[in-house]
Design brief:
Layout lengths: L1 E3 L2 E3 L30 H7 L8 E5 L6 H13 L5 E5 L4 H11 L6 E5 L3 H11 L3 E5 L16 H18 L2 E6 L12 H5 L2 E6 L6 E9 L7 E7 L2 E4 L18 E8 L2 E12 L8 E4 L3 H15 L7 E6 L11 H13 L7 E3 L2 E2 L5 E2 L4 H10 L4 E5 L13 E5 L2 H5 L19
Keywords: ATP-binding, DNA damage, DNA repair, DNA-binding, Hydrolase, Metal-binding, Nucleotide-binding, Stress response, Zinc, Zinc-finger
GO cellular component, one term: cytosol
Protein name: DNA repair protein RadA
């Protein structure tokens, strides 16, 4: 930089452009049409498929199934007559071949390479001219022209820039696997997430078969879509209708359970939450939750104590959703609340009843977005009764055959008959034992 009269002057000179600028109406939009991957749940999250030249970063914890998912995608894409290049810096070609055979992912146009040198990978892209490139993972590749170890900030930046440049110039749809740190962030420089077109997070508990996929960033589609997968011994299967995974198989509900509807993106899912309350064995009361937020659970316990008069703060409280579902949005508050009341009172909930609503600190039930779609999904799953916030049904159509009751405060919901009298109950008055 040079300064003239207090004004900073740039040293970069203008050069003749390699291609002239075009009027926007003359740009060929067909080059940006998404190609279906053959995996419907992945296409849903990506916004219809993967765009030629787009670079998608798929992040997730080790062992969650990223490689298995992408190997299945590679085989399905190759069976449509398009060449796929799968580059792995973590496994040998023989290891990948064995997994592909196990999950039924063999295809004639699927090419494998176990390579860690960026220059060699770029040469393969030039030679093979694939329509889909999969790199597993971006942290295992390294460039000989840049100092640093594979996975370091400098190397990840150079590898990502080289692959993105090749993908854009040749119109190759690209899927990059990215490792995550202990706090769930993509390992490497933050610049990596800015350079790519799409960032997807693949999540799941190791003890559960359920896997979820969501878009954190998407230049070609929405970021509010949500995909579900079932991890089996024979690979990963997309779940177009995952609600049944999160419900109990018994027809008659037990005390301490309730149904709620959580919405992931634009997809509502009926989820059962269970609550167990016991006297503390020793020391201070315990709080253990799974699938629901610990902070919201603690808040709901305080609201039940203050505004409903339940002596609940001195109990050991355990709360969990079924099937590994995550129900962390405020709309699930009322279902969790009624499950806690049901568990404390010993009264089972009324059959086929769902609760939707956010609980405020004053004990008021507040309305939430998507009431109509939530009720429709609940009705599709066999729910016939629902309790929602007062005013939530204004301008909202309820499913024909579903009885919907509105409640303004938490006490109103408890007194509305959503808990049956088929079991001995404990008084809900204040200071009960």
């Amino acid at each position: 930089m040079a300064e003239t009269g207090g004004v900073t002057q740039s040293r970069t000179r203008a050069v003749r452009p390699s291609s002239a600028a075009q009027p926007i109406a003359e740009v060929d939009a067909n080059t940006a049409q998404a190609l279906g991957t053959g995996v419907d749940e992945l296409d849903r999250v990506l916004g219809g498929g993967i765009v030629p030249g787009a670079v998608v970063l798929l992040s997730g914890e080790p062992g969650v199934g990223k490689s298995t998912l992408l190997l299945d995608v590679a085989a399905r894409f190759a069976r449509t007559g398009r060449k796929v290049l799968y580059v792995s810096g973590e496994e040998s070609a023989g290891q990948i071949r064995l997994r592909a055979q196990r999950i039924g992912a063999l295809a004639d146009l699927l090419y494998l390479s176990a390579e860690t040198d960026l220059g060699t990978v770029l040469g393969m892209i030039e030679a093979e001219q694939p329509e889909l490139l999969i790199v597993d993972s971006v942290q295992t590749l390294a460039s000989a022209d840049v100092e640093g170890v594979p996975g370091g900030v400098t190397q990840v930046r150079e590898v990502a820039a080289g692959i993105i440049r090749a993908a854009k110039s040749k119109g190759v749809a690209t899927l990059l696997v990215g490792h995550v740190t202990k706090d769930g962030q993509v390992a490497g420089p933050r610049l990596l997430e800015h350079l790519v077109d799409v960032v997807c997070s693949f999540e799941g508990e190791k003890h559960s078969r359920l896997r979820t996929l969501r878009a954190v960033k998407n230049r070609f589609g929405p970021t509010d879509e949500f995909g579900c997968f079932d991890m089996t011994e024979n690979g990963i299967i997309g779940l177009a209708d995952p609600s049944g995974l999160f419900l109990s198989a018994t027809e008659d509900p037990s005390p301490g359970t309730f149904l709620g509807v959580t919405q992931e993106g634009r997809r509502p899912m009926v989820v059962e939450v269970q609550a167990l309350l016991t006297p503390p064995a020793s020391g201070p009361p315990r709080r253990a939750v799974s699938g629901v937020e610990n902070a919201r659970t603690a808040m709901i316990l305080a609201v039940l104590n203050k505004h409903v008069g339940l002596d609940i703060l001195g109990k050991d409280v355990f709360a969990a959703t079924l099937g590994g579902a995550k129900a962390v949005e405020p709309a699930f508050d009322l279902a969790l609340c009624l499950a806690l009341v049901s568990g404390l009172s010993g009264k089972p909930p009324r059959r086929r009843t769902v609760a939707i609503g956010e609980i405020s600190l004053s004990g008021e039930i507040r309305t939430v977005p998507g009431i109509e779609s939530r009720l429709s999904e609940a009705f599709r799953q066999g729910v016939t009764h629902a309790i929602v916030p007062r005013g939530a049904m204004e301008g909202t159509r309820k499913p024909r055959g579903m009885a919907v009751r509105e409640a303004q405060r938490l006490q109103d919901a408890i007194n509305s008959g959503v808990l049956s009298d088929t079991a001995p109950s404990v008084s809900l008055d204040s200071n009960h034992a």
